[in-house]
């Protein structure tokens, strides 16, 4: 591997293999400091019971009834400002395709290890089968494995880096990716309108048609000591928009709301949408990318598909001129998504420190 592109600092251990061999303890490498561990207090559990991220029905969004359209736009606007996270139903993606995509990936993770290892990834591009983010030696690791692949731009789409098994997985991923790109395009229009801009403005800020899209499939094996670790450490998503297809059986995603962690209760066949760092920058922090993390449990594995809709990777991303005023000067200097992603990939998930550190000093 060329210089400046380090390989993994330590041998890779698949969390799935650990899970199969750990009876009642976990390796120290996965034990989080006390402040980062999930809270299991009954007080928090009670608070959590009554809270959920907004659920928004998109049926009628583009229909003839202006009142319906306005109401949906308003709900999305409020969810973007107050939560940075919401669930959408009646989004137009077929439920059977959603189930098929999730189950195809579940089957992939249940293939024999030697087949999965053929797709083992490296920190150079992260494409393929992985078990850690960041290349810092001695880092505390998360209790999950994943698969990462590019869907767009076309130049990065490489079927050889997508799993060949289970049979028809490539067709399923292809169809699923196509539907999600369409859906993200619609949401980009909604967000533009809600920001008081021309409906094509955000897409234009992303580089027009030349956007990026990638899929990260997360596999969270059962964990004998879920109170000591996290499936995915607190982070905000670096890209533009994320469409998460969560496990239909097992909750685990937690979203930060003030000083609490709210466990998302997934609605059947909904997508969980969240704002990423690049939209925080373009919107000059009108919309914030919100921190989230994943907890694990001792009974059931969990599979989730995170689809990331990103700007063209080599154009400068900075607050849109229309959103800069005397009262609200630009909060961020321009930076390309390539530069931004490199920064994150070296360090692994770290709350919101990345986007915060971008802020222009004043
Ligand atoms: C992610 C993510 C959440 C989940 O992959 O960025 O936040 O529920 N996933 O797996
Ligand atoms: Ni995320």
Automatic annotation (TrEMBL):
Cofactor: L-ascorbate; Fe(2+)
Gene Ontology terms for molecular function: dioxygenase activity; jasmonic acid hydrolase; L-ascorbic acid binding; metal ion binding
Alphabetically ordered keywords of this record: Dioxygenase, Iron, Jasmonic acid signaling pathway, Metal-binding, Oxidoreductase, Plant defense, Vitamin C
Gene Ontology annotations of biological process type: defense response; negative regulation of defense response to insect; regulation of defense response to fungus; regulation of jasmonic acid mediated signaling pathway
Name of the molecule in the record: Fe2OG dioxygenase domain-containing protein
Domain Fe2OG dioxygenase: 210-311
Family, similarity comment: Belongs to the iron/ascorbate-dependent oxidoreductase family.
Catalytic function, reaction form: jasmonate + 2-oxoglutarate + O2 = (1R,2R)-12-hydroxyjasmonate + succinate + CO2
